[in-house]
Every structure is written in structure tokens, then in C-alpha cells.
Design brief:
Blueprint (H helix, E strand, L loop, with lengths): L2 H6 L16 H26 L2 E8 L7 E9 L7 E7 L9 E2 L2 E5 L10 E2 L2 H4 L14 H10 L21 H10 L10 H14 L6 E10 L4 E7 L1 E5 L2 E5 L12 E8 L14 E3 L6 E15 L8 E14 L2 E2 L2 E2 L3 E8 L2 E8 L3 H39 L4
Helix pairs in contact: 2-7
Amino acid sequence: MGLGQVLKKVDAFPKLIDIEVNKTFSGALLTIISGIFMFVLVMSELNAYMTPNLNEELFVDTTRSHKLKINLDIYVPRISCDYLSLDAMDSTGEQHLHIEHNIFKRRMSLDGHPIEEAKKEDIQSSTTKKLNQTVEEPPKPEEEKEKKVDEPPKCGSCYGAEYNKTHCCNTCQDVIDAYRDKRWNPDTDKFEQCIGEKKVENEFAKKALDEGCNIFGYLEVNRMGGSFHIAPGRSFSINHIHVHDVQPFSSSKFNTSHVIRRLTFGEEFGFGQTNPLDNLEVTAKETAIMYNYYIKIVPTMYLPQGDASGIIHTNQFSVTTHQKTAQSSGGESTMPGIFFSYELSPLMVKYTEKSNSFSHFLVNICGIIGGIFTVAGLVDSVLHRVEKQIRRKMELGKFT
């Protein structure tokens, strides 16, 4: 007996000779359905194979050297850009020093269309100016000398309330303070300083509630807990207390409805990352609402597959919200606006991207094809037997 004859005995796929082939409508329909199922499952398995697998780890965060990048895009439809301030504070309530930022403001009409091109915002200067005040560059030494010689400093009248000959009242507030020292009632409509300042205030305030504002860009602050807010009025500090000057309006005039188009902390890596505040629309049912967003930031490290130099240090976060009417009661003073307070978790999440096994992919493909063929063969066999029994009974006249 030759080698060929011996090998034939272990053939697991014996062939049938001269078998009759009978093609049926049910078999054709079952073939089409099986083919569709097979194609869908194979494509699904291919997509799962092409999608990287993420391995998740949790450990104590020791990477405090990185800056915290805050990406934001917020639209306030009922307060103009000139009357909105963006301020970033640290955990002690003091303004962040040496902020790196790329924040822009774009004036918007009440119907949501841009009025002009976006302009870069100077966050640092907004904390040092009061409403209607301007910051001038300091004069050069030569100019200062000439000014002292040629132009003696002007001295505004205190309208009889000065306490000596050299007492000057150059602003409306100076006159009011002088009158209060004398315990007199000031009539600001008769003071030249107050009349001039009111004209500037009125011109400035004409469009304060007739426009909207889109604030977007990013801030880079120290990696520590803190807060930032968008609120009406120019901001400044008095004795380390952060305040907003909303004159000539009252706080009850402001509608703080807003849309948070985007708010993230750090870079985006895509897989499994969610930003719970993106595309959030908030409509205020009344004016002067203070919106608070309390954010818990979880530092995240993402290691791409096969690229050790491409490590991404980013953050994920969860948020709880609270709102209340801005008013002064029980010794607590609040103001309308959109306030974000954040703190960092001491734990870090590490995602490591890994590729799926090709052999596992092949096993799944074979399982899909073989399984569908086997199930389809069983179903076809049952349908063929039922059809054959029905036809036989019809021939005998027993089928009713």
C-alpha cells in the first residue's frame, strides 16, 4: 500500500459522487440572509480589531510640575464684551500671577451673529482698573520735567468742602468724600467732576445690555486648586478683596444666560474621554442669577501605542452645579455671573494604548463564518424536511 493510499484514510472531508443537487427558494433566501449577517459581523470584528485597547491604571499623582491648561468657549448672549470680565483666582482667593493666556472676546448681536472680529483680552489689566478709568503709560523723565515746568498740576474744586488751600478734588468721589467729611449732603448734579464722569458712564453703558459676547481661548495657570469666573463690571481688588464695579447699573439688571460650548482641562486624547459641560445651554428665568460650577479634576496620563515620546498629560473632570439669586443677605454678598471652582484629585488615571491580537482576530472571523454556516445548514435542513412532509401529505390528500 502506497503513501497516497495511507493518507486517503485520514481524509476528514470525504466526497460524494454523483449526488443529486436540488436548489430551493428557501435555501436561496437563507443564503442571502446568512451572507448579510456574516458581512455585518465580520466588519464589526474588523472595527474592534482596528480600535486600540486601553489598559487603565490608578495611582497617586506626583507630577505637579505641569501647568493646568483651561480651554474654554463660552457665549453670553445678553451682556456686551466691554462689560464682561474674566478673572482667574488661586485657592486663596488671590489673583493668579503670571498667567499665560490666549483669550479672545468677540462682540455678538442679540440674535447671535458676530459684529466684528475677535480681539485678544488683557486679563491682567482688567484686575487693576476701575470702571471708566484708563491706564496711561508713565511719562519719560524728560517729559515729566517739562510737564512740571510748563504745566502745573490741575487742582479740582471741592466746592467749599476743602479742609485747606492745597486740598484738591479731581474726581467725583473726591468731592463726595470731602462733603461727607464735613457732614454735608452732596448734590452730584452740580459738581463738574460728576457731570463729566456720568457722561462717560452713560456712553459706555448704552450697549452694555444690547449686545452679547463670545469669550474663547485658553488659560495656563499653576497646577493647584482655584477658580475663574465671567461676571459683569470691571474687576479690581480692594484690600485683597476681589470686587466688580457694575455702575451705572444695579446687579438686578443683568441676564446671565449662557452657553458653554466647550470647557476642557488639558489636551484631548479622544478614547473614553468625556467633557460633561460641552454644549450646555443655560437660560436664566430671571435676572441677576449666580451660576456655580464645582469641578473635580482627575489628572490623566495617556500613552499612545508604540510612541513613548508622545505621552499626553491631560485631565478629566466631573461637575456639580448650583444657582442662586445674587443678592446681599445675612452678611453674605454675591453677584451675578458664571463661576467655576475646581480642585485636583490626588490620584491619577493612566491609560496605556495596546493593539489587539491578530491571531485572536482570525479565530473570531473563523468562528463567525463557521458558526453562521452551521446554523444556516441546520435551519435549511429543518425547512427542507418540513417542506418535504407537507408536499407528501398534499399528494396523499391528507393536508388540510
